[in-house]
Amino acid sequence: MTYTIIIVATVIFNIFCGIYRARQTKLRWKLFYIHIPIPFIAWARISSGISWKFIPVLVFVALGSQIVGGKLPVGNHPLTEVEQKKIDLADVISRK
Question: Exposure of 6 by Cβ count < 10 A (0-12 exposed, 13-18 middle, 19+ buried)?
Fold first, then answer.
């Protein structure tokens, strides 16, 4: 039961951090949000007496949840370079 609670908490927490991380452009300090769940997950694992052998499972779950959260169509995702160039090109064409 304890394992299930920690896995569910890890999934939920990391999905929200993945959503926020996906909105940021590359190489920004806000990409630090990837690492915010780590101390909380470690604290939950240690305080509930779960073995260190469970760490790879939690890392896999956290990574997967961050990826899923980043792919969810929520909020304003930053434009890719190609999308930005299309907008710039359309802007130049419309000015003529």
Answer: buried
Q: Domain containing 74: what range?
A: 2-95
Please state, in angstroms and rounded to a whole number, the distance separating the CA atoms of residues 59 and 63.
Answer: 6
How distant, in Å, are the alpha carbons of 6, 40, 57, 87 from that of 48?
9, 12, 16, 52
Distance from C-alpha of 46 to C-alpha of 30, rounded to nearest angstrom: 27
Tally of domains in the chain: 1
Q: What angle do CA 30, 36, 39 make, to 5 degrees?
A: 155
Task: Convert the pLDDT of each residue in 17-70 to its tens digit.
Answer: 888 777 776 666 667 777 888 888 899 889 988 888 888 999 999 989 988 888
What is the pTM assigned to this prediction?
0.67
Alpha carbon distance 39, 52 (integer Å): 14
